[in-house]
Amino acid sequence: MIMNNILLTTTTLLLLLSFGDCDVHNLWKQVDDVSADVQESTVEEMINRITDSFFDLKINVGAPRIGDGLDMVVVNYTADTRLLSINATTGIAAAWGFNHFLKYRCNSHISWETRNVNSSACQPTVDLVLTANDKYRYYMNVCTPGYSFAWWQWSDWETHIDWMALNGINLPLAFTGQEEIWRRVWTKLGLSQEDLDEYFVGPAFLPWGRMGNIRGWGGPLTPAWHKIQLEIQHKILDRMRSFGMIPVLPAFSGKVPHGYAKLHPSSNFTSAGWNYFPDNLTGVLLLDPIDPLFDDIGKLFIEEYTKEFGTNHIYNCDTFNEMRPPTNSTDFLAKVGKSVYAGMSQADPDAVWMMQGWLFLDSGFWGYDQIKALLTSVKQGSMLMLDLDSTEFEQYSRSDSYMGQPFIFNMLHNFGGIQQLFGRNNIVNTKSFEARKMKNSSLVGIGLTPEGIHSSYIMSDLMLEMAWRQEPVDDVGLWFQQYATRRYGKDNSNATKAWALLSRNVYNSTAYNPHQNVLLINPPSLQMTDETWYTLSELYTAWGLLLNASQDFNDSETYKFDLVDVTRQALVNQAPIWYDLIRTAYNDKSLLLVHQYGLMFMRLLHDLDRILGTNSNFMLGPWLESAKALATTPAEEANYEYNARNQITLWGPDGQILDYAGKQWSGLMKDYYAPRWQLMFKYLETSLVNQVPFNQDAYHADYLKNIGEPFCVSRKRYPIYPHEDTITVAREIYEEWSKYILISKIHKKKV
Questions:
Q1: In this structure, what CATH number is given to the domain that contains residue 115?
Q2: Which residues neighbour 629 within 8 Å (Cβ) at sequence distance 6 or greater?
């Protein structure tokens, strides 16, 4: 909606949009406690950071929300005076409006990794109004702090919270530093340091310790770690609240250290293993939710947490995430729900329980009656559900819109933090509108729930626009072209054609997320598959078009990032071609062809490592150095580096979740993936020479002993800065590998 010379008034706001009352608790209470002055100054400081104080700013926060607490913002701008006036309901709305102004009036773009801000290129006169469709814009997955934020310091968080604000995120997960609060709680309850060392996992694995999947792995956590994380969390919460966000805080889900069970032998505890971890590293105990101690621990934790950080009254708690309850009795499940909520509400009468709907994917356990028993165990509005993966595995449709409990529609676009060009743009563009319109819909927001970031940002950009668009994008291909123009700062026909082509197939999948079907970074065997829903020739055409745009973008970091990313995907997608040729040659007992095709495969890995090394966002060094930077002693440094290396490779002592969080990074490609593939080809050739079957078990054991485990304990340093020019290297690689396009045209896998 565009309005000329509009002035924001209470009357104007109330006339624009009105909704009926909703049963959700009034979670705006805490936001209203943050003064308008604080929110205004926070937004102003952010804008000045981004634009080098280019604008003459006039920001007003505090206009009434629309209907049931919906945000709205009005932006007016005059280029002659550089006066930028923003009038909004909250600081978040003001920041959101500013980003909309940058995108659609200044041809600018800000993403997780890169930005293109053209403050001096804004339209001469701007008058716009932006209104939210729903109350909430949620962000984060409980795994994101492990796969992407594990080693972040305050400067990283400050930049990322700015990004959240710019995109209207008003309900972010805020889990940093909770282990120190738990340390205090468990110490008060009589546990020793030895008990805690056996319980707390290392920094790279905190999400899975919090969920009760593993214990002790990668630890211990030191007093210095607790102190640093506590300080960072104070800054995170202060900044989030200053923008007007509602941070989602942790709560007690029932997981307890083994030392606690020893102190309470008469209480009931259950445990379950997880992903083949040894018994001493899994089997976290779950206290019977009906036990009176459950409420006591929940109350004590929130009291201790609130004493340190304050509260915003909304708590995430997942008692049975990827773990089945001991019984499917509806009576038991109802009692569990009441008990979990009681643990929160006894300490905070205004508590709202946020729960992931991910557990309901286990339809073999969670039938309609079981879902109903849990969701109706607390009054409507005391629970806020995250439909964690609405674009692929929605659960609202089989649960009567979560039995009337309010829910948030989310896009879970990434697993393990791996890089891939992947999207479902047609689904993202339409499905949230359908969910709002379904019978008895209780949808109250949209959100992003990636396990890791730094992959296919364009899909997150599109998804976040569903928070304000009144209807789906008319022409998604055109939207992709305009995205490219904003991202690179100018229109270039080759670049826009490339993105239009990518929008048709690469970013318009109807397949499952291909996360665990990326052949190049999966454990080698003779039974591998790779899932691609588009022909490689389509990707290569887009790659060539993007390269042809290079003359206009020699100095564009956003362009160079994308050129690395598309080149990376083009090479990764050729790997299955050479793999199939190698496998066929092996089955045909052709030693010569196995060797020749193996050499081609290794050349591919070399060139992939080379292009990745031209951009620090695709390099191993920054991940390892950021881990070590948080250390205060040599012992901490060695352990943090081990955590960082293990998570992206073995993910466990013996490869329990091998390569789940694999990264296509320079350095990792050279020293981990390439030696592993080279060893595979050696075993195949030896098998043919000796005329014996390929021994998969022997190969895997050899890899673990001589490549996987040594990589995890290695202290080798890797570069943190690029060492070649992206455009030059990408062009050389394109000229080398595009000539194999005829092979790729017949290599389209099933969807």
A1: 3.30.379.10
A2: 151, 153
Residue 201 within a domain: yes
Q: What is the value of pTM for the model shown?
A: 0.94
Beta carbons of 284 and 350 less than 8 angstroms apart: no
Per-residue model confidence as pLDDT tens digits over 669-681: 999 999 999 999 9
pLDDT score, position 16: 32
pLDDT beneath 70, residues of the chain:
1-32, 742-751
pLDDT in tens, 719-747: 999 999 999 999 999 999 998 875 555 55
Q: What pLDDT score was predicted for residue 290?
A: 87
Say if residue 580 is exposed, middle or buried (CB neighbours under 10 Å; 0-12, 13-18, 19+): middle
- CATH number of the domain that 579 lies in? 1.20.120.670
Please check whether residues 100 and 170 belong to one and the same domain: no
707 token code pair: 């490549």
Q: Are residues 535 and 552 in the same domain?
A: yes
For the chain, counts of helices (H) and of strands (E)? 30, 17
Residues 91 and 146 in one domain: no
H runs (alpha helix) in 588-720: 591-612, 620-629, 634-647, 668, 674-690, 696-703, 709-713
The tokens for 488 are: 């690179």
Per-residue pLDDT of 134-149, as tens digits, reads: 999 999 999 999 999 9
Q: How far apart are the C-alpha atoms of 598 and 592, rounded to whole Å?
A: 10
**Is the same domain home to 467 and 489?**
no
**Are 461 and 499 members of one domain?**
no
Kindly give, in sequence order, each residue whose CB lies less than 8 Å from that of residue 579, ignoring residues fewer than 6 positions away. 519, 528, 530, 601
What secondary structure letter does DSSP report for 628?
H
Supply the range of the domain harboring residue 54.
10-132
pLDDT digits (tens, 9 = 90+) for 685-713: 999 999 999 999 999 999 999 999 999 99
In whole angstroms, give the CA distance from residue 432 to residue 427: 8
Q: Report the number of distinct structural domains present in the chain.
A: 3
Q: How far is CA 431 from CA 235, 428, 472, 483, 538, in A?
A: 36, 6, 9, 21, 26
